[in-house]
Amino acid sequence: MGLLKNSDWYDIARQTNWTPSYVKEEELFPREFSDPYDIPVSEWEKFDEPYKVTYRDYVQTQREKDVGAYSVKAALSRGEFYDKAAPGWKALLQMHFGAIPFVEYGSVSAFARMTRFGKGPGMRNMANFGSLDEVRHTQIQMYFGYEFVNQHRAFDWAQKAPNTDNWIVISERHTFDDVEHTRDAVSAAIMTNFSFEQGFTNLQFIALSADAKRYGDYSFSAMLQTVQSDEARHSQIGEPLIEIMIRNGKKAEAQRLIDISFWRVWKQFSALSGICIDYYTPLDRRETSFKEFVHEFVATQFLRNLQALGLEKPWYWDEHFLPDIEIFHHAQQIGIYLYRPTEWWDPIAGVSPAERDWLEKKYPGWNDTYGEVWDVIAENVLKGRHEKTIPQPLPMLCNMTGFELTGVGGKKWNVKECTVDLDGRRYHFGSPVDKWIFELEPNRYKGQLGFIDRIVAGMTPAGADGVFEYMGMSPEDRGVCGDNYRWADGYRRAAE
Amino acid sequence: MQTANFPLVINFEGDYGMKVIMVNAGSTIKEVIQTAADQLVGVVVKPLPKGTVLKARRHGSEETLPSDLKVADAGFVKMETLDIVRA
């Protein structure tokens, strides 16, 4: 007996809505979990997923993908590769495997909530596969990362990170809890699938994968590619949702969800992917700058998708987002390097004379701004004053992003913040966009204590090691200069 | 000696980002400036030319704070942000 073609039965098989008789519909789909926009179920039932996947096909495809990625890993001697890798690439791997797996694992439950509370059968079907995808992403990234656990303590953070109050982990949690985990199924899906996944995962998984391949890290490249192949499918949940919202008079609400989540996720990718691409990737294998990747994947492709749906670019696009592409990650890189004992990885400076030439070429004016700060740090390294390469004062962190409050240093000094005074507390924000997000829903955000707030409030144990103890960082866990200050040798030679 | 327990956010000219320093409520603005300079110049800010005079002002304000003004008398909230700039 011949099998029916998928297209002959798929649409009927996934029509799993029914009229509840044991409970009321509002009990089955509580408004605050399912749809606060009060769009009729009949509209949600029109959700038409661009990728129609059956479970049978899904399993077969995923198995083939896993075989491909794990085979590449099995064929290559990764331990030897890691030993020989440049300090920047080691830093990149250490950071990636600590920062990413727990966000992937969180996404399992985000998709599960869409599966449970989404009112559109097609959406639920897609989201169910999304949960399975994210289980796979967690497993593969922990598995690939754990290969190195005997070689460097940082890889233990693939498992450990979410159980700590490390300041970077707090920053990630604040963002992704907001975008993925604390909203109704529709809002979370638009924010996660459209803004986060369609907007930005290309940067981490395609841009970085290309760099990995050029560097010869074929296992990491294959792992990133196999993850992104799933992201490309399940990120498509967002578009039909936006179309339904626009058709039902909720364009402004959809636009606002995009505007909030785009900025929140941008700051995470700018800080973490930005420094990986522009500072950690070895110079001789670096072709495209972070700025160029962002302009291609985000400012062009994502904007085109957004406008094709009938939405506008976020209100802050020209005034804040485009300039931020040139600024934010450079300033963050300085802080990440200076405050390295607070990180689980061993960051590198990435500012040897040759690297500075590249940065100046890609970001004209870099030498007069960030370069001037690095001059001071380099001078301390050259004079053997290593203790002065770790500032005594704490960095001030933004109450929205959780990252340092930064701007442009050096000759063109321009560091500004915005504040909100509420209930006897001053909140500090790194940009008007962060402040705007806070003021949209103060009750959602107020009261959360950022890492510095916790120190000032006396929540960290006393003593020089109290802050590290609070972050779960024994002395062995703390980052050191990844190349043992060799980055400054070029300055020494130039001075001789 | 008083314990430095009043947090101020310092935005020092030339630095790439803001810092938190703890000061005494009884400290003067001049002492706050000196504390910030001691901790940041030669660390993230290049050494200042000899004779450079530094001034403090509330973040975003053009009005310079008097050097002898005490933190306790300035009406600062905790984590008040001060710009420290060359005069």
Describe what you observe in this structure.
The complex is a heterodimer of chains A (496) and B (87). Chain A is mostly helical and 496 residues long. Chain A is 62% helix and 2% strand. Chain A has 24 helices and three strands. Chain A has a two-stranded antiparallel sheet. Chain A starts with 5 loop residues before the first helix and ends with a helix. Chain B is globular, with a radius of gyration of 12 Å. The model of chain B has no long low-confidence stretch (mean pLDDT 95). With 87 residues, chain B is an alpha+beta fold. Chain A binds chain B through residues 331, 334-335, 338, 370, 372-373, 375-377, 380, 388-389, 391-396, 404-410, 413, 415-417, 419, 421, 426, 428, 452, 456, and chain B through 7, 9-11, 13-21, 36, 39-40, 42-47, 59-60, 77-81. Strand 1 (394-395) of chain A pairs antiparallel with strand 2 of chain B.
Helix content of chain B: 10-25%
Total number of helices of chain B: 1
**Main sheet: strand order of chain B:** 2-1-4-3
Structural class of chain B: alpha+beta
What is the N-to-C order of secondary-structure elements of chain A (H for helix, E for strand)?
HHHHHHHHHHHHHHHHHHHEEEHHHHH
Radius of gyration of chain A, taken over Cα atoms and rounded to an integer in Å: 23 Å
Chain-averaged pLDDT of chain A: 94
Q: How many strands appear in the DSSP assignment of chain B?
A: 4
Total of DSSP H or I helical runs spanning 4+ residues of chain A = 24
Low-pLDDT residue intervals, each spanning 5 or more residues of chain B: none
* Main pleated-sheet profile of chain B: 4 strands, mixed
> How confident overall, as mean pLDDT of chain B?
95
Q: Oligomerization state of this entry?
A: heterodimer
**Morphology call of chain B:** globular
Using a beta-carbon cutoff below 8 angstroms, give the protein chain pair with the largest interface and the number of residues from each chain: A-B, 36 and 29 residues
